[in-house]
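Reading group handout, session on sequence-to-structure problems. Before we discuss, look at one worked example. The prompt was deliberately terse, the way you'd type it at a terminal:

> structure Cyclic nucleotide-binding domain-containing protein

The input record follows.
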Amino acid sequence: MMKQWRTKLFGKGCLGWRMREPLVNRYASRRKSVFAETYDPEADDDDDGARAIFPKTDEQRSRLCDSVKNILLFRSLDKEQMNEVLDAMFEKKVKAKDYIIKQGDDGDNFYVIESGIYKAYVGEDQKHIHTYDNSGSFGELALLYNMPRAATIQAETDGQLWAMDRQTFRRILLKSAFRKRKMYEALLDAVPMLKTLQSYERMNLADALIPKTFAKGERIIKQGDAADGMYFIEDGKVSIRIQQDAGEVEISMLEKGQYFGELALVTHRPRAASAYAVDNVKVAFLQTDCFERLLGKVLDVMLRGMKHYRYVDQSVWKMILEACREENSQVR
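And the output record:
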């Protein structure tokens, strides 16, 4: 019943990133790669080494910003790292029928689409599997995993791409991901609820978290709003308040290592309380669609913790208590 209850509440879970280079048999028609180099972000302490910089006009930089703003690979980069990405990308104009990458080749660049239509093909029969229509990115798999290209990408129309070489891509993206994972692993280790997770499960959770900051007095979530995710406090204090006849009343003060926002995700109800930054606050944000996939294992711990929430209505109380009783009967 617990499993059915979870399925009823959550649906199918995290859908993951948008479609990227498709995974195919990496050993089919594989030839030896000329790129034998490896990159170890833990061993790289040089932040001041030579960086690729391609000068751009204000108009070019503005166009590039518009092209990369929705690329998920870049969402965890800070402002300085994002400027490095913009500096390192160069324009590539293509004509209809040009091949951008070919399956089995060594990876040289990562590409972001500014304009044009591009089709992805795989296999010896070049089966069409995806079309990029004036947006998106491709080419990251070969660079991230040091493997041959997994698909062929051909321009269907004239177009404009922005490209970044493999070394810069690996240094910026992998080093950023490594630092982010280490930082969030330390944060998650301090959350008692997550002690039951295996190390690799905490790593997956750390990789899914998105950094957010809020200024003193800023409202983080609003009572009555639909839930978009939950929050782990990285630094600062958060005041939890509920609306009553006389105004908002503080019911809890949370600090580093604590979390909030999970109740609305578990119950699929609107937010039961508001949250405010008491001082400058840094949080790690977990989106709704990834919540069940990554935290389903500790859902039972969450449910037991929710029994202490004083601001939930009777229907939610009943749902939580029934789920906890069912779980306890299974344990016995």
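Points for discussion. First: The two ends are 15 Å apart (CA to CA). Second: The CA atoms of residues 44 and 232 lie 29 Å apart.
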